[in-house]
Structure formats: C-alpha cells, structure tokens
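Quick bug: Methionine synthase I output formatted oddly.
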Amino acid sequence: MGMIDRFLGVGAAAQTVSNAAANVTEIFRENATRKMELEEAAYGHAITQLSAEFGAARRGWFDDIVNGMNRLPRPLLTLGTIGLFVYAMVEPIGFSQRMAGLQTVPEPLWWLLGAIVSFYFGAREAHYFRSRSFPQRIEQSVVPLPETGAPEPVQQSITSGNFSDNAALQDWAAGR
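Here's what came back:
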C-alpha cells in the first residue's frame, strides 16, 4: 500500500487534506475525546485537592462526640414515633389536644422542617456513600455450561419428517 501511495504521489497530500478537514471540524464541533480527557484531568485534580485538604485530618475527642451525637436522631425519631403511638393509646384525649395544636403550625414551617431533616439525612448518606471503600479486585465466577451434543441440522429434521408434536407440520411434510 505504501508503494502505491508513493507511486501516485497522493499520500502526503491526502494526509494534509485530512488533517485540515479535522481541524476545520473542531472549529464547529468540539473534539469529544479531548473533552473527556480534559474533564477526567479536572476531576482527578479536584479529587487530589480534596483529599489533600480533608484526608489528613486528625480526629480528636470533639470529633468523636459530634459523630456520636449525629448518630442519635434516627433512633430518637423511631422511639419518639413509637412513643406517640403508646401515648395515643394510653391517653387519647391529651394526644388529640396535642395533635390539634400541631394543626395550627403553618404549612411553610412544615416544609422547612422537611427540608432540614431531608438535607441532614441526605448529607449523611452522601458522606457515607463517598467515603465507602471499593474492593481492589473483583473475582468473576464462571459457571460451566452443561455439555450437549451438536444440534441437528435444520434440513435433516425437515427431510426426516420428525414432527411428532405438531400435527400441522406432519400434514405439511406428508404433502411435500
């Protein structure tokens, strides 16, 4: 192929035209591969900077106390809800008075409470999602397939007329 290119003398000219067309194309449409490379480099730089900033933080007694306090809301919410059920069964009149009082809370305040609670739990979930460790090596298991004989050729099954389970095909084969 190289000898034909040299003989015709279009190898270098064709390469030049091809490069020019590629450069003109990149003016109107960005190079997707280059964009992915730049995004990956930016992501790697951001992760490196983040790990340098937060990776070597020493944990002290204050961090342990705050982390322990952050673990309290879920069990307390669960126990509080169960406590409300018990309170409703033990003293229904007092429970209904307190529920009537809760109905006087304006709706925007309920939305604010929902946003605060969801952001709190969402941030904790995101923190644990980001800080989980992935296995270094994933083992793949291969299940062997059962040994079967070679499939019968289609033409042979048609000519043999082995259609014991299909009456319409038996009639068709008999009519051939």
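Actually, after a second look the formatting is fine. The mean pLDDT is 79. Closing.
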